[in-house]
Amino acid sequence: LTERQRIQLSMMMTQALRHRPGQFNLTLDSAGWTPISDLAAALADRFAGVDPADAIAEVVALSDKTRYEIKDNRIRATYGHTVEADDSGQLTAPPAYLFHGTTPQALPHIRRTGLQPMKRRRVHLSATDDTATIVARRRTDKPIILKVRAAEAAQARVRFWVATDRTWTAEPIGPEFLEFP
Ligand code: HQG
User: Is 3.40.50.720 the CATH classification of the domain at 3-77?
Assistant: First the structure.
């Protein structure tokens, strides 16, 4: 695949595996898994001349953010769901601190209501402040980095899941667990 084709296919895969599985004739289980063959069938006509399963494997292998996971002929998005995927990731006790990159505009809301999942099922957190800065730069050239007292929140029964080596997901996190700049 060319890089352009890879990006196009990856965008279709996030639509299918995070947001609109029904539109691709897919059924996701509670952890977000679906057979690779079903996804390949759904995407086949968009990539004439390329084996769709090979193309999918290439996108998975080259994903800079480890957006997808393959296991036992099944595939899932590692994070980012708007559809229910209640067991995605691995329920794990978090480190003392995680990070969240956001915008100046969101800050007053976050001070009041804490981190909310907004359109997704879970709040997304970064393992390092560098990664959080990259996440924030998607939306702003003035990144705001919040330090999340994750272990303390977990003690107060907020659940955390490891998605990738750089990304965690969590339930809503109250402002009392956030350190503002
Ligand atoms: C903000 C990308 C108002 C939050 C990234 C963020 C990540 C609030 C936005 C992954 C709020 C939600 C997720 C509150 C949070 N009031 N705004 N109470 N609480 N917000 O995209 O973390 O490339 O759903 O700060 O790299 O930006 O797609 O979350 O600005 O890993 O693979 O509401 O998506 O990965 O935005 O990004 P998002 P996110 P991919």
Answer: no
CA of 124 relative to ligand 1 center, distance in Å: 6
Length of the chain: 181
Q: CA–CA separation, 9 vs 148, rounded Å?
A: 34
Nearest atom (ligand 1) to Cα of 119:
24
Asked if residue 15 has its Cβ within 6 Å of ligand 1, the reply is no
Crossing angle of helices 36-43 and 52-62, in 10° steps, is: 110
65 lines ligand 1 (CB under 6 A): yes
C-alpha 97/C-alpha 129 separation (Å) is 10
* Fold classified for 90-179: ADP-ribosylation fold (3.20.170)
Whether the pLDDT of residue 87 is over 90: the answer is no
Domain ranges of the chain: 3-77, 90-179
81 lines ligand 1 (CB under 6 A): no
pLDDT, tens digit (0-9, with 9 covering 90-100), for 28-67: 999 999 999 999 999 988 777 889 999 999 999 998 899 9
- Ligand 1 lined by 23 (C-beta under 6 Å): no
